[in-house]
């Protein structure tokens, strides 16, 4: 197996990593940075669904078992 050296090898590896990054950005990184668009789509898709009606086995809708409270926001 030949050992690769030189600027061509570095350019090849850099190009490969760059193409991989450009491919993954809109799929994985962008939704993590700004999820507001996905929240809006989810809210629109679920607006006529009551979770209590579709809960399987007449189970209670999930609640936090540790009773954490949401931090209050200052109203200005």
Automatic annotation (TrEMBL):
Region (Disordered): 49-76
InterPro entries membership: MITRAC7/Phoenixin
Gene Ontology terms: biological process: mitochondrial respiratory chain complex IV assembly
Origin: domain of life: Eukaryota
TM annotation in the entry: 6-29
Keyword Membrane: yes
Biased composition (Basic and acidic residues): 66-76
Keywords: Membrane, Transmembrane, Transmembrane helix
GO cellular component: mitochondrial inner membrane
Protease keyword on record: no
Endpoints of the signal sequence: none
A Pfam family annotated for this UniProt entry: MITRAC7_Phoenixin
Protein name as it appears in the record: Small integral membrane protein 20
Organism listed in the record: Arctia plantaginis
């Amino acid at each position: 197996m030949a050992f690769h050296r030189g600027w061509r090898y570095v350019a090849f590896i850099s190009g490969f990593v760059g193409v991989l990054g450009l491919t993954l950005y809109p799929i994985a990184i962008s939704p993590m940075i700004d999820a507001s668009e996905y929240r809006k789509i989810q809210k629109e898709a679920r607006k006529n669904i009551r979770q209590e009606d579709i809960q399987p086995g007449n189970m209670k809708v999930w609640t936090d078992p540790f009773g954490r409270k949401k931090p209050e926001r200052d109203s200005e």
